[in-house]
Amino acid sequence: MSDSFAETFDGEPDVVWRAPGRVNLIGEHTDYNDGFVLPWALPLGVTAALRRNDSGIVRMVSRQHGPDVVEARVAELAPGSVRGWAGYPAGVVWRLRDAGLLAGSPGFDLVVDGDVPAGAGLSSSAALECVVVRAIDDVLGLGLSGPEAAAHARGAENEFVGVPSGVMDQMASLMCAQGSALFLDTRSMATRQVPLAVEDAGLTLLLVDTNAPHQLVDGEYADRQRACAAGAAALGVTALRDVALAGLDDALARIPDDVVRRRVRHVVTENARVLDVVGLLDDGRPDEIGPLLTASHVSLRDDFEVTVPELDTAVVAALGAGALGARMTGGGFGGSVVILARAADADAITAAVAAAFATRGFAPPRPVPATPSAGAHRLGGPTG
User: Fold this and answer.
1) Which residues are paired to 193 by β-bridges?
2) 3-state class of 51 per DSSP?
3) Distance CA 22, CA 41 (A)
4) Could you tell me where the beta strands, DSSP code E, fall in the chain?
5) What is the pTM (predicted TM-score) of this model?
6) Residue 54: burial class (beta carbons within 10 Å; 0-12, 13-18, 19+)
7) Most buried of 125, 180, 287, 361, CB within 10 angstroms?
C-alpha cells in the first residue's frame, strides 16, 4: 500500500490500516430495532493508506476503481456531494467535520484497496468507512472508542450516502476478535466475544457468494425499516426489541396490517434465535445451532421477504446435501449464504450448491474465505 500511495501522491502515508468485512451468523434486520446480532469478521477487508495534508482537500483513490483521483473540499462536503465509492470515505470526513473533530479543516490523501466482494452482502462499504475512521482517528489522535467510531462510520452511510443501515456492520468491522463472533446488543451497545471454534466439534462454516447483486439503496431496506417502526408504534413500544416472544401472538393480533404483522414476527422471533444460538455456543454445543439458522432463513423468506431465488436455491441445495443449517446473511435482495456443515461434508455441499445453480441457469456461486478474523487494526506507517 505504501508503494501505491507513493505512486499517486509522492512520499509516504502517515498510517496504514486494515478493516474487515463481516458475515452475520444470525440476527438479521434486528439491529435497527434495538435488537441482538452475532456477526464475525472476515479475513477479507479494505486497506487504507492515509496522510494528512493542510490543503483543506480530501484526495481519494481506489485501486478497484482505476487511477483517477477524486477530490473534494472538506469545507464544502454535504450529503450527496460525492457519489460512487468515494462517497463513503468522503462521508466519514464530513461526519467528523460536523462533529467538530477536524480542527483547522485539515485535508487528507487516501489510497484504498479491498478484497471484499462488492455486492455480496458482506459489508464492503462498512469496511471502507471503518478503515477511514480509524486511519483519521490515528493521524489526528482523536481517541475514538469503538462505538464512537462506529457511530461516525454509520452516520456516513446513513446520512451522506443515503443507505439506512443499522450499526451492526460497523461494530463488527471495528470490534470483532479473531476466532470469535461478536454478540452485540444494539440498544446498550454492550458487546461480548463468543468463541466460534466450530472446528473443535468437527464442523465448518461455509460462506457462499450467490453472485446475485446485493442492492439496498433502491428503497426496499427503507420499506422494511418503516414497517418495523409502524409495528412498534402500533404496539406502543420504543422498538420491536421490547416485544416479548411469549406475548407475540397477542401482540400480532393488535396489528391490523398483514405486512407489518409479518415484519414484526420476524424481528421478535429472530431476536430469540440470536439468544438461543449464543446460549448453545456458550455451552459448547455448536452442532445444535443449525435448525436455528435455517429457521432464520425461512423467516427472512416468508415474513420479511428479503430473499431472492439464488439465496433460496443455495439454502435448499445445501440442506439437501447434508448441511446442518443454512441461511442468507446480510440485508438480503441478493448477497451470500452462510452454511453450517460437518467438515467432512463441505466439498459435497459446495458442489451441490454449484450444481443447483447450473440447473437453474444462475451465475456460478463463489465460495468466500470465512475464518473468524480480527477487527480493524493498524498495519503500520512511518510514524509507527
Assistant:
1) 182
2) strand
3) 4
4) 15-24, 36-37, 39-53, 57-62, 70-73, 107-114, 180-185, 191-195, 203-212, 325-329, 335-342, 366-367, 377-380
5) 0.92
6) exposed
7) 125
Assess if CATH 3.30.70.890 describes domain 196-367: yes
Q: Which of 165, 171, 124, 168 is nearest to 146 (CA)?
A: 171
Q: What residue ranges do the domains of the chain occupy?
A: 2-192+372-380, 196-367
Helix (H, G, I), strand (E, B) or coil at 151: helix
Select from 272, 273, 238, 266 the least CA-distant residue to 252: 266
Q: Supply the DSSP symbol for 363.
A: P
In which residue are the cell numbers 421478535 written? Answer: 268
The answer to whether the beta carbons of residues 47 and 35 sit under 8 Å apart is no
Tens place of pLDDT per residue across the chain (384 aa): 778 899 999 999 999 999 999 999 999 999 999 999 999 999 999 999 999 998 999 999 999 987 899 999 999 999 999 999 999 999 999 999 999 999 887 999 999 999 988 777 888 999 999 999 999 999 999 999 999 999 999 999 999 999 888 899 999 999 999 999 999 999 999 999 999 989 999 999 999 999 987 555 468 888 999 999 999 999 999 999 999 999 999 999 999 999 999 999 999 999 999 999 999 999 999 999 999 999 999 999 999 999 999 999 999 999 999 999 999 999 899 999 999 999 999 999 999 999 999 999 999 999 999 999 999 999 976 544
Q: Residue 233 and residue 193: Cα distance in Å, rounded?
A: 33
| Cα angle 339, 345, 346; round to 5 | 50
Residues serving a catalytic function are: 169
Measured distance CA(248)–CA(281) in Å, rounded: 26
Same CATH fold assignment for domains 2-192+372-380 and 196-367: no
Which position has the grid cell 441457469? 361
Three cell numbers written together for 12:
509516504
What fold, for 2-192+372-380?
Answer: Ribosomal Protein S5; domain 2 (3.30.230)
- Phi, psi dihedral angles at 311 (to 5 degrees): -65, -45
